[in-house]
Design a protein that fits this description.
Layout (H helix, E strand, L loop, with lengths): L17 E2 L4 E15 L2 E13 L7 E5 L2 E5 L2 E6 L2 E11 L5 E7 L2 E9 L9 E4 L10 H6 L4 H13 L4 E4 L13 H7 L4 H6 L4 H18 L5 H7 L2 E3 L15 H4 L2 H19 L20 E4 L4 E5 L14 H12 L7 E6 L9 H36 L1 H18 L18 H6 L7 H18 L2 E6 L5 E7 L10 E5 L10 H13 L4 H4 L7 E4 L19 E2 L3 E7 L6 E8 L9 E8 L3 E7 L9 E5 L3
Parallel strand pairs: 10-11, 11-12, 14-15, 15-16, 16-18
Antiparallel strand pairs: 1-2, 2-3, 3-7, 4-5, 4-8, 6-7, 8-9, 10-21, 13-14, 17-18, 17-19, 17-20, 21-22, 22-23, 23-24, 24-25
């Protein structure tokens, strides 16, 4: 079979796809971009997208509402393998009242609805998801016991039917593409010995076509999963990229791997399909009106109501072991935030990994130590055996020198990935889990960058009277953290971190959650070292989960993290209409039952702030503190 004729393996019957005359059409997917102000009117800007066989003529999209019907012509974004990506641009005036639109295509049955807020709505109704897939360590039996992918997507769709979501925010890992490493051509590359040989190994045409095929096929099948498919067709999305959207840990590996031809091309293709399937654009398309002006990544500022915006911060595109976002990019992002309308009262900062989260100090120290020992041992061993081989070579000749070097490689093999160190080394011969720990903002490589970013957000909050809240996923559990000034809990230093993860993936083992709780008990705050020159910023994880989903009290060591699948509901809260309520919707023991909300209100006017499990109204409040907006 000639490589250029490889066709995507979409699986028998192409699950979730809609059959056309010859192949399979995928979608529709809805995207939200921005709101334009034109001649006194607010124009909602977004699009719908289909992925259709290249030999099919794209159909028009029919769009209807109470105001009438119209046809939307197709625009081809890009051709990939056997399919075309077809976008249907939408520019819809917002009105004084909410609107429902129905849309459809001749080849897609049934049609779908989506909802727009009113033009004056201060806070749109949003959902937040992350970690929308399983990792290989989750067994088939465990997946079945959890109800596989559907339970929380079905739960969200039920709530959407009762009170429509206007936007779905994706916090990263909307898909898990780690299986790309199972391709034989990449497995062979992993077996290459020597860092230089691996770094400079050529990227071949075969690699390019097989990897393209993998990403395209995997996206088609995953986004066609029951529950996910319906949500993506009914709720407009705006997403950030995290590592699994390309492959596990990318950006946090050692420099020789990150700069290798293989990693660079995997990033290129992974981001290509992230942009196509999740943002409905391409790396070369005009960025105006979608991404932050002058940005060198894919960060966005998204309008979510008259008083509410979200900063969708791209923390992957520029990531290395030493940094998450470049200094120039931070300046560009903060300058864009400073341009927000004075009407904005809340800024939601969406990141892949939480800024406020318990530190895995002992584990991180241990794995770092293992890595350091490995590096030192390698260096000493290599140097000593090189000297030995040269000495032997001078006396006994080249053959004897070669024998010593071969013996060295045999010893390293016994100590390396396939030998005694196999329990702590990954497929690249690096310390296992090291990339996951380096991903975290609190890692020693990123702690200063984190402190600097928070200090800048504090300045913006103080000057612009803008309450900043962080939301993230990645860690596969639910949590709530906060930064605050114990002398004045209402000032600009008050920032909450909502952690909502995962909507699909399994939670960490109990032993990991206990370790994290132990870290909380020791205290996260480092007042003087935390932010230079500011001893008033403290940090803590909040006791939000005093009861489990069954209403039973939890041990004190489990009040700050909840290891159950979840997503987040975001909406206006309170009678004042100027506060945000975040409800972490946690999967019930019986996954066919409704999720259980754990809620926190972030007001912008002085009041009491309470967090409770709404289904346990008779229970005492888990937490109570007085806060107000800046």
């Amino acid at each position: 079979q000639r490589l250029k004729n490889i066709t995507p393996d979409l699986g028998p019957g192409a699950p979730g796809g809609v059959e056309t005359s010859t192949m399979t059409t995928y979608g529709p997917y809805l995207r939200y971009v921005r709101v334009d102000e034109e001649d006194g009117s607010s124009i909602w800007v977004g699009s719908a997208m289909l992925v259709v066989p290249s030999n099919e003529t794209p159909s028009t999209m029919t769009l209807s509402s109470e105001s009438g019907s119209t046809s939307i012509e197709a625009t081809k974004i890009l051709s990939a393998l056997t399919h075309d990506f077809i976008r249907y641009p939408l520019r819809l005036p917002l009105k004084d009242v909410p609107q429902r639109f129905s849309y459809g295509f001749p080849e897609v049955k049934p049609g779908y609805d989506f909802h727009l807020p009113s033009a004056s709505d201060p806070y749109w109704h949003c959902s937040f998801t992350s970690c929308n897939g399983f990792t290989d360590d989750v067994s088939e039996e465990a997946r079945e016991q959890m109800g596989r992918e559907r339970p929380l997507w079905d739960d969200m769709l039920r709530r959407h039917a009762q009170k429509p979501y206007h936007v779905m925010l994706g916090g990263g890992d909307q898909i898990y593409c780690d299986d790309v490493w199972k391709l034989e051509v990449l497995r062979n590359w992993q077996k290459v010995k020597g860092k230089d040989n691996r770094q400079y190994a050529k990227w071949t045409e075969e690699m390019d076509q097989l990897v393209e095929n993998f990403y395209f096929t995997h996206y088609c099948n995953h986004f066609a999963t029951d529950g996910i498919r319906e949500a993506y067709a009914k709720i407009p999305q705006v997403n950030v990229c995290d590592d699994h959207d390309c492959f596990d840990g990318f950006g946090s590996y050692p420099e020789y791997l990150e700069k290798s031809n293989v990693f660079q091309n995997l990033r290129r293709i992974g981001y290509k399909y992230f942009l196509l399937f999740q943002l409905q654009t391409t790396p070369t398309e005009d960025r105006t009106g979608m991404f932050i002006p002058k940005s060198n990544s894919y960060s966005m500022i998204t309008h979510l109501g008259k008083s509410f915006s979200a900063l969708m911060l791209d923390t992957r595109h520029q990531r290395t072991r030493d940094r998450i976002v470049t200094e120039d990019e931070w300046e560009t992002v903060f300058n864009a935030v400073k341009e927000l309308s004075p009407d904005k009262r809340h800024l939601l900062v969406v990141t892949g990994v939480p800024l406020i989260y318990p530190r895995m100090g002992d584990v991180e120290w241990g794995l770092t130590a293992v890595g350091d020992v490995k590096k030192v041992t390698n260096k000493v061993f290599n140097t000593s055996t090189n000297l030995l081989s040269k000495g032997v070579g001078k006396v006994f000749g080249a053959k004897a020198e070669s024998t010593v070097l071969n013996a060295r490689e045999a010893v390293k093999l016994k100590m390396g990935k396939s030998g005694l160190m196999s329990a702590v080394l990954n497929d690249f011969g690096e310390v296992s889990l090291d990339d996951d720990l380096i991903d975290h903002w609190t890692n020693k490589y990123h702690d200063k960058e984190r402190a600097s970013a928070i200090a800048q957000f504090q300045k913006i909050s103080e000057i612009q009277q803008l309450r900043v809240t962080f939301i993230a996923g990645d860690v596969h559990c639910a949590a709530l953290g906060r930064l605050f000034n114990p002398l004045d809990e209402a000032d600009h230093r008050l920032m909450y971190q909502v952690v909502s993860s995962a909507i699909v993936n399994a939670s960490p083992p109990i032993v990991v959650l206990k370790k994290l709780h132990s870290s909380c008990a020791k205290g996260n705050a480092k007042p003087k070292a935390f932010i230079d020159g500011d001893i008033n910023t403290h940090e803590e994880m909040v006791e939000l989960f005093k009861t489990d989903v069954d209403g039973e009290s939890k041990p004190a060591a489990g009040h700050k993290l909840l290891g159950r699948r979840n997503y987040c509901n975001i909406e206006a809260g309170g009678d004042a209409g100027d506060e945000l309520e975040f409800s972490i919707m946690v999967q019930n023991e019986d996954w066919k039952s409704d999720s259980v909300p754990y809620s926190v209100k972030v007001p912008s006017v002085g009041s009491f702030y309470m967090m409770k499990n709404e289904d346990r109204k008779s229970d005492s409040l888990p937490y109570l503190l007085k806060i107000s907006s800046v």
